[in-house]
Amino acid sequence: MRTLAILLLSAAPLLAQLPAPNASGVSAGHVHMMVRDPAAHKKIWVETLGAKVVTSGSLELLKLPGIFLVLGKAEPAEGSEGSSVDHFAFRVKDLPATRAKLAAAGVPITREDDAEIVTVFPDKVKVEFYAAPALAAPIEHFHVHFFAVDPDALRAWYVKNFGAGSTTPGNATAAGVPGMAFSFRKMPSPQAATKGRSLDHIGFEVKDIEAFCKKLEANGVTFDSPFRSVPAVGLKIAFIVDPAGTRIELTEGLAGK
Question: Global pTM?
Fold first, then answer.
């Protein structure tokens, strides 16, 4: 059985609302995929894994406990493997049943044991599922896995800018914010940036996004797209890029959707 040094810092509410933010005002937000056939992805997430379709203005979201998924249409440069975010993961109450449903839906399973399965969704989006029989809900979001040359420095960046924390003293490979744990793997060479790949970016919901962005600017964080309000989708947003090349969307307004 493969051991993953990772810590989930906060359980997601059963009704799939995003968890309460940490002291820095940050919680999990969404994972945004840019794929050739969004309808094919949507079918798997909705019919096989129970995601609910909700909207924020003109934006369609797939809602699962602790996270939203967003699907955009594009010709991705590559899949998630080989980028700074290798995969994202869920915990499931019944792993054998989840495995059977995914296999029936035609999702390739590349590795499996009693504790986890590793799958590859269309457009080479890597998604892991972990056994969690004690869950009250069938599924909840678990973690994202960063691959970086200097994982300790990357972890420190998330601690500084997002208030990420770990309750395991001395564990330099696990951290997270409510609803999204982080794991970090050391790589011998830099990985590709996520922008333009099928897993294009991850997202955090933040309180008072304008003030939060000013704090990031004071910390020297470079913005890929500055803070702005987008009335068409009922959100305030901004984009930044972490030191490893992960594109990150900051949102205010997803909570409660």
Answer: 0.91
